[in-house]
TrEMBL record:
The lineage of its organism: Bacteria, Bacillati, Bacillota, Clostridia, Eubacteriales. It comes from Desulfitobacterium metallireducens DSM 15288. The keyword RNA-binding does not apply. The record marks T181 as: Essential for prephenate dehydratase activity. One of its GO terms (biological process) is L-phenylalanine biosynthetic process. GO terms for molecular function: prephenate dehydratase activity. Coiled coil: none annotated. This is Prephenate dehydratase. NCBIfam families: PRK11898.1 (NF008865). It catalyses: prephenate + H(+) = 3-phenylpyruvate + CO2 + H2O.
Length: 293
């Protein structure tokens, strides 16, 4: 049986999204990969890079809080993993407590940094007295709160409330009701990428531009002059030198289409380093789901 890693423990949004995706895939219903929880995203992606697991499933960006830095940084550092699929999952945050409480009684709130950021307005308005403490995942936060009778709370999934016997104090506390996270599937084989060219595909690249004036505009021009749509660009520190950055870029189209190959070849001639992160079908945005209840 194949295996797939996710950010755990059980009850995380990663597990919730993974279970939903696998239930929708006809080809995975009989040959479902065995889900394996990891405590951090770098550990998960490194395990996939070393062939210790067959696939990885990680969050890449959130519609409210933006990029997931740990995912992007580790993708940039690993050598042999590629994105072959994406999945967009609606995120509805719940405030979980070990027992029913008045909001004014809550002294601490635990959660992943992304979840805390997605609920910033709620926390500032309704829990200004509560200390916010970052956890490795929303599920780990729920686990911690479930082991105490202190006036603590966690932000996480309704499934986590069920798994860890917590009270769902408040539902849908995220600041944006159309809150969604883009998850990606990665593997260590290029064979998983679609062999067919399609305008509905997306290609993700890591680009290291020369640290000279105008280098980024020259990169963007190579895509623009060929009418290649760029749907996303994010910068991250190179981790080698202060002020030096790498760029994560998503463009429309299949990487081995002639027009994209032409653009990449032109970049190489200009000494621009490019790394293929993956080429895969675009995911459909989700409909707003019902509140957790």
């Amino acid at each position: 049986m194949s295996s797939i890693g996710f950010l755990g423990p059980k009850g995380s949004f990663s597990e919730e999204a993974l279970q939903l995706f696998m239930s929708q895939q006809e080809d995975w219903k009989e040959n479902r990969p065995d889900p394996i929880p990891f405590s951090t995203i770098p550990k998960l992606l490194s395990a996939c890079d070393r062939h210790e697991i067959d696939y990885g499933f990680v969050p890449l960006e959130n519609s409210t809080e933006g990029q997931v830095g740990a995912t992007m940084d580790t993708l940039g550092q690993t050598e042999n993993i590629y994105i072959f699929k994406e999945f967009i999952h609606p995120i509805e945050q719940c405030l979980l407590t070990p027992k029913p409480l008045e909001l004014s009684q809550i002294e601490r709130v635990y959660s992943h940094e992304q979840a805390l950021g997605q609920c910033r307005d709620f926390l500032e308005t309704h829990l200004p007295q509560a200390e916010q403490i970052v956890s490795l995942s929303t599920a780990q936060a729920a686990q911690k709160v479930s082991s105490t009778q202190e006036n603590w709370a966690a932000i996480g999934t309704h499934r986590a409330a069920e798994l860890y016997s917590l009270h769902c104090q408040e539902e849908r506390i995220q600041d944006a009701m159309l809150n969604a996270t883009r998850f990606i599937f990665v593997t260590h084989s290029l064979a998983e990428m679609s062999p067919e060219m399609s305008a509905e595909d997306k290609t993700s690249l890591l680009i290291i531009a020369p640290n000279v004036a105008g280098s980024l505009s020259q990169i963007l021009l190579e895509f623009a002059t060929r009418n290649i749509n760029m749907s996303r660009i994010e910068s991250r520190p190179s981790k080698k030198k202060l002020g030096e950055y790498v760029f994560f870029i998503d463009i429309d189209g299949y990487v081995f289409s002639p027009i994209i190959q032409e653009a990449l070849w032109s970049l190489r001639e200009k000494n621009v380093s490019t790394k293929l992160l993956g080429s895969y079908p675009k995911a459909l945005p989700p409909a707003l789901t019902s509140p957790c209840s």
